[in-house]
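Structure tokens please, single chain.
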Amino acid sequence: MQHMANSMIGGVSDNNVWYVDSGASNLMTSHGEWFRDTKDLKTPSFVETGDDTTHPITQIGKVPLCMQNGQTKYLKDVLHVPTITKNLISIGQMVEQGLHVTFNPNGCFVEDLKNQGKLIAKGERNGQMFTLDVNMPKVNSMLFTHGKGAGHIGIWHK
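Here you go.
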């Protein structure tokens, strides 16, 4: 089983920032402490990033995100990839999970189709990239608030 993510890595970790990535086949993060209900992989798997490096996947599980509407949304089937430095949101997986994602010059918008299309999160546009404005649950976020800044993005959609 091989997961491919034509996305970026490198630079300083952005911690809680999630990049909305149309090229990512899966949701993924390096933060193992964020996961709930994890399962180990039966066979070794990896993601390949835009710089032609491979990164091992250690687990798959759910990650809770605090949305702007005050609710916690559990993203499922998130890959734990300890060696990547960016948190990636796969648009395809968001759609599979009942979310509607739109983009315009003002940013990106996530609506919950299972909840009458209510806006649950929005993101900022930074050039041709979009980041989702969500937070990790407060209990966890205090454990890893070291570092700051967006860092330098080396490769995007090779």
